[in-house]
# Entry
Amino acid sequence: MSSFSARVKRVINDNELHIALSRATAQLRSSRSASLSSLENADLIRDMARRAKLNILHDLDEHLLKFEQRLIDNGVQVHWAEKGTDACEIVIKIAQKHRIKKVLKSKSMVTEEIHLNDALIKTGLNVVETDLGEYIVQLADDRPSHIITPIIHMTREKVGEIMHRSLNVPYTNDIPKLARYAREELRKEFLNADMGITGANFGVVETGTICLVTNEGNGRMVTTLPKIHIVLMGLEKLVPTLADLDLMLKILARSATGQKLTSYTTLIHGPGDREDSVSPEEVHVILLDNGRTSILGSEQAEILGCIRCGACLNVCPVYKSIGGHAYGDVYAGPIGSIVTPGLKGLAEWKDLPFASTLCYACNEVCPVRLDIPEMLLSLRKKIIREEKIPLGLKLGMKGFGIITSHPKLYKIMRKISSLFLSLISKDGWIKSFPTKWWIPTGFLNGWTQVRDFKIPARKSFQDMWIERKKSHE
Amino acid sequence: MNSSGFADSKSAILSRIKQSKLSAKLPNAEPGLPERIEYPSLNEEELLSRFLEELKALEVDCYIESSPENVRRRIKSFIHGKSILSWDAQCLPYDTGAILEKEKVFYESDEINIQAQAEIGLTGCDAAIAETGSLALIQKKGQSRTASLLPFVHIAVVKKNAIYLSMGEFYAKNGKDITGAPCINIVTGPSRTADIELTLTLGVHGPGKVIVVIGP
# Structure
């Protein structure tokens, strides 16, 4: 895995990506705010939705046991998986038992998280993604870059080329035509599918309901036509009651796409009678841990309340500049910077919590009011505490501490450094710091590697304050 | 009922949760919040007008008919001469099943590939949700999931007295019907995608056109 800064370097000069990202995020932002303002009692509903999620997390074990019992009562087969590989193995076993050849999937972040497709393909299974965006990702052998709109990074021309190349259809950049190609191709798959795999947006403890929302209807196809339906869900996806589900659905689509409700909200309770109805004869639910219980024991436990709406991505100045791929794993943006280190360990992902300006925009839009900046800060603190800090930096920070806590000293040092910076700058900017032995400022070049350094104004705020005071006397 | 050979996973996960709860730093919810959302109680006309407003925004065509006969006539004007995938006749309100006799109709009992050929899907509606313009369709005998899914056009017959303001209200008043059904689909407008350049496109997998006929 390349480092965060290497990944950023790869995308930062990609103009096409920037155009696609800024268009898309701007549109999602404005439809979100328009849609949320149409919700009566929006603030109250957000508070109550947050309460529902926190209640689940405070007693997650008891809720899980109750949820499992309801599922079993409803005729659902329940499986528990500690790790991603366990979940993959469970899916493979079910597929083998029923001699399944082909698996249809509806968009699911958690299956991306555990690399389910790779595992299934390795055992010889054929896997078809059915969400339009994910389907194109699969055809192009690419990766999704946004929770809600997986090909936010592609232009229509690119999509046209991909379909032309892989489906042997005439090239077009006409979006309705591209969608029709996908409808025709995937319809054949739906009608011949034996097994469907989906995630879950919510699980309702009280009733054992699996709730799944999709706009295209592929979620309905995958949960209706095959004889086996497997639901893979993170164990934090619960809400206590159907009334709480109502709250969640009121804020989810509004925050994600700006719709009041997604086109299809599917509530699943269990298998149907396949003799005289078109519905699965077996429904399986896999409850996945894969690092969630360790997040629960950390200072970032609150992040498990995330409902994956993607609103924080669309407002994040960092996401808007680098897109989803630079985050290095399936969960991008502000929540990704907390979830990924939480699930996979901080050691390899310690640059992600720093990929934030702490502007608090994510905090403001989060429908369940997760304190994302505070969690990023607590992760940063943890990293700094555990890291071996170089002596030079330690001494430097100590010196900085002494200077800034002594006003007179501060004033002198400010004058000296201001004079020094103006000597080595040109027109008020420094393109790179000198590295000569008698001016050892090379360590500051981390800054100028990616941007120029603006020298401070000649007159400081304090100077202006004193002048102003004098002139008023 | 753990059929997969990871029998210990459950206890391992539960004990990790118990362990984590000891060190968890979870905030508490805002105190003093109400138990539930209070909805204003609207009369039938108010609910209808709210429902219509939302349907319009979703680009759903809507027809309000004053008598069962007019409902049947309206539906006939859409389906005559077309192939239809329908709920069973006894599950359609206003005796709509009667007009199907002379048409080319498929039912859930037909082969799936036959069902998929239908041009129009015809269903009733167990409850309409005014604040989102949604149709709640409960799966039960005679009420297939496919009729509202496979054809490109979906026609739903809605009874005026089956309109609720919110989904929460629908859940609260129909608890048993909901939990007893293998599946409930809440349909809000046509199938849509905005995956390519965030450009709205209708009918990607499900119906691209939804028509609602409301009877007395």
Q: What stands out?
A: The mean pLDDT of chain A is 93. DSSP finds 22 helices and twelve strands in chain A.
